[in-house]
Amino acid sequence: MKLFLTVFLFTLAASVPGAAHAQSYPQKPVRIISPYSPGGLGDLLPRAVAAGLTELLGQQVIVENRPGASQIIGMQAAARSAPDGYTLVFGSVTSLAINPSAHRNLPYDPVKDFAPVALCVTTPVYLVVHPSVPAKSVKDLVALARARPGRMTYGSGGNGSSNHLAGELFKSLARVDVLHVPYKGAGPAMIDVMAGHIDMMFGAAGLAEAQAGKVRLLGVSSAKRSALAPQVPTIAESGVPGYEATIWFGLLAPAGTPAGIVTRLSQDINKVLGQPRVRESFNTLDITPGSPDAFASLIKREIPKWRKVIEGAKITME
């Protein structure tokens, strides 16, 4: 009987992958690698999650900034880390869905090298133009761009950035020729839109600038209207059918991290994202917690979508 019970308990433990690891986890501090410089959303949001996880896990969770090379440096560091639950990385649509096609020799595989833990944020892109642009709607803008092939300009945070790709998707679906002007960051691009140096931009910012009259907001990139600006039509419903482009961020662990630990982290991260203080701090964003499987499915859907855009626009980066 004793032998039978021992075999039964061993078999039960083996049938729950990562169960033993999850029960004793964590026993030391956990780090979240942010592939961003300090100060922006890619730094502030993981810090908010880290603070909440520290309380729930009973161990210090720290954020380590590893910016550079279109987020590649930080992502590569995470991919090479031990799959023990003590390293997470703050991934995005750029690092996980755009980089695989934009960079020829990407030193990590977004699907094979990571275990998705939790999607954190999804935010639409806003199409804004300088007030001098004689277009009051997306339909007007498309007509104007077709009448001025190659003469209108749109700015972005740099080649291969999410707002660059949002612009290229617009060009493809609207069948317009608009000149791309890359900047070293989305902030400088928005400044030049407000100054009238470039005509328009697809960016996560734009609501406050539009309310101040510095730019005109024409459309939102999500499939449904934004709760933050319900009066603004989607780009798809107002002149470019099928258009959808969102910016998203989430946390991942190195591939091979025990399933029990991934589940534990996912549940705790979702609890943190649901806290009123976190939602209030990021009230201009759509907090979208979810399961590891749902996050994995999103990544797999977005890779071929942006590959088609990148190949169509002939975008290549070393």
Condensed summary:
With 318 residues, this protein is α/β, with parallel strands linked by helices. It has helices spanning 2-14, 19-24, 41-57, 72-79, 93-102, 138-147, 162-174, 186-195, 207-211, 259-273, 276-281, 292-313; strands at residues 30-34, 61-65, 87-92, 114-124, 126-129, 153-156, 179-182, 200-203, 216-220, 246-254, 286-287.
Features:
six-stranded mixed sheet; 42% helix; five-stranded mixed sheet; 19% strand; D-Maltodextrin-Binding Protein, domain 2; alpha/beta; 318 residues
How would you describe what is shown here?
The protein starts with a helix and ends in a 5-residue tail after the last helix. 43% of the residues are buried. It folds into 2 domains: 2-120 and 248-313, Bordetella uptake gene, domain 1 (D-Maltodextrin-Binding Protein, domain 2, 3-Layer(aba) Sandwich), CATH 3.40.190; 126-220, 3-Layer(aba) Sandwich (D-Maltodextrin-Binding Protein, domain 2). The chain contains 12 helices and 11 strands. The protein has 318 residues and is an alpha/beta fold. Helix 3 (41-57) packs across helix 10 (259-273), helix 5 (93-102) runs parallel beside helix 12 and helix 7 (162-174) packs across helix 12.
- What structural category characterises the helix and strand content? alpha/beta
Task: Give unreliable regions as ranges.
Answer: 2-15
CATH architecture verdict of the largest domain = 3-Layer(aba) Sandwich
Query: What number is the mean pLDDT?
Result: 91
Order of helices and strands: HHEHEHEHEEHEHEHEHEEHHEH
Spatial extent as radius of gyration: 22 Å
* Quaternary structure state of the chains depicted: single chain
